[in-house]
């Protein structure tokens, strides 16, 4: 087929149209490339490295700036790259790390009742891989979202002793400003070092919620914490301890009647707590009523979102992490608030 030379989509016309334009200045290319890691977790940056040797040389410093890892194969691949390039770890700032790859609808072996739960863990190898990766990048990370193996274990098949040992949070994270984590135990139980720069902490929990709000320990590990969010709170048996913990964290004891009375063990910088109950555990009216009383007690510094299904935690966490990467509010914008038992738009 012959193209009309005058048509704008003619190959000859396009080629001639490009001739008068000089190549983009290197400084401009670097400026553009430096913004791509914030778009999609580094995927665009990695694609730019395939354009040409010139682009690869310019994009390489940003190649590991933001990384998304889902599953054991990707984790092993990242560890191999970090070991091959001694400078790579020092360039990483944002990391989403899920030790299990999520399962999509329609995959074989799907459990009808839990369509979004990732595949059953193959316990063992990736735990060591996770620790090795964290050991290399922890001094440089500023934002970290971590889902460990145990976060995906909801049943009797969980073998005893299958926890991350040693915990990656026994390592120092001096630059970390934002942390989202899904694991069985509270992070501060494993922390050997404080998180001096951490301002925002989002914890996905399935149980043992009252341990999260141990005020003195939280204050020691997260001395500059300003935002705290808890998703998946279980309120059947321990909601009274949980209420006390929330009150202590805010510096207001539930038993105090005077508005100007405060606890000495609260988190001094904390000004926002967001709670999101797990749907399965929020059907007890007494538990939600108890939380509503805490909301009234804490005024505007505490918000309670409508309950959500824990099967969606992985997907929500990744979407929130990417949104924060792009400059959005992510999980810190409470879109639906549960106030005194009624849902309303914020």
TrEMBL record:
Name of this protein: F-box domain-containing protein
């Amino acid at each position: 087929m012959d193209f009309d030379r005058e048509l704008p989509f003619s190959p000859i016309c396009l080629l001639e149209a490009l001739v008068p334009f000089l190549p983009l200045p290197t400084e401009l290319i670097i400026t553009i490339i430096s913004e791509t890691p914030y778009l999609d977790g580094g995927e665009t940056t990695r694609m730019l490295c395939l354009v040409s040797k010139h682009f690869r040389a310019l994009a390489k410093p940003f190649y590991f700036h933001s990384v998304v890892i889902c599953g054991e194969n990707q984790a092993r691949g990242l560890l191999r790259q970090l070991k091959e390039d001694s400078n790579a770890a020092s360039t990483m700032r944002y990391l989403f790390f899920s030790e299990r790859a999520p399962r999509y609808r329609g995959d074989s072996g799907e459990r009808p009742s839990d369509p979004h739960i990732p595949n059953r863990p193959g316990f063992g190898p990736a735990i060591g891989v996770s620790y090795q990766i964290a050991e290399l990048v922890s001094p440089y990370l500023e934002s970290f979202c971590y889902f460990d193996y145990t976060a995906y274990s909801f049943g009797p098949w969980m073998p005893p002793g299958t926890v991350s040992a040693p915990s990656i949070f026994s390592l120092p994270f001096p630059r970390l400003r934002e942390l989202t984590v899904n694991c069985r135990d509270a992070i501060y139980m494993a922390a050997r070092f404080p998180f001096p720069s951490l301002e925002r902490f989002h914890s996905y929990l399935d149980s043992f919620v009252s341990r999260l709000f141990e005020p003195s320990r939280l204050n020691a590990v997260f001395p500059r914490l300003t935002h705290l969010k808890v998703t998946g709170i279980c309120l059947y048996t321990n909601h009274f301890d949980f209420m006390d913990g929330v009150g202590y964290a805010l510096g207001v004891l539930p038993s105090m009647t005077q508005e100007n009375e405060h606890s000495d063990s609260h988190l001094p910088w904390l000004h926002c707590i967001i709670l999101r109950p797990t749907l399965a555990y929020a059907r007890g009216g007494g538990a939600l009523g108890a939380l509503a009383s805490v909301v009234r007690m804490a005024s505007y510094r505490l918000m309670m979102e409508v309950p959500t299904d824990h099967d969606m935690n992985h997907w929500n966490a990744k979407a929130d992490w990417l949104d924060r990467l792009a400059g959005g509010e992510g999980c810190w914008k409470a879109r639906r608030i549960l106030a005194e038992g009624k849902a309303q738009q914020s």
